[in-house]
Amino acid sequence: MLKYLLLFVVIALAYAFVKTKARKLEKTRSNEDHSTPAVEDMARCAYCGIHFPLNEGVRSGGLVFCSNEHRKDHLKEKDKSSR
Ligand SMILES: [Zn+2]
User: Fold this and answer.
1) pTM to 2 decimals?
2) Of 5, 22, 24, 52, which residue is 20 to 30 A from 31 by alpha carbon distance?
3) Residue 75 C-alpha to ligand 1 middle, in angstroms?
4) Residue 83 alpha carbon to ligand 1 centre in Å
5) How many domains does the chain have?
6) Residue 47 shares a structural domain with residue 72
7) Could you report the per-residue pLDDT of 21-55, keeping only the tens digit for each?
8) How far is the CA of 71 from the centre of ligand 1 (A)?
């Protein structure tokens, strides 16, 4: 009788161990899922403030713009304010 009880405890422990391990695996897997979705660097247009993928932007003088037009507009306004 004691033998069966011991066997049951061992099985229960093994079951609990496997279950927690599987849960941990699931957790790390879901964490990976959160970090994976298209990790693209986002940038903010210095002119209009819109967010866009950095590789689609235009860089100028340490600033990033959503389009070449906004880069030009920003430079125009800069010229106006400096004068
Ligand atoms: Zn813009």
Assistant:
1) 0.49
2) 52
3) 12
4) 23
5) 2
6) yes
7) 888 888 777 666 555 556 678 999 999 999 999 99
8) 8
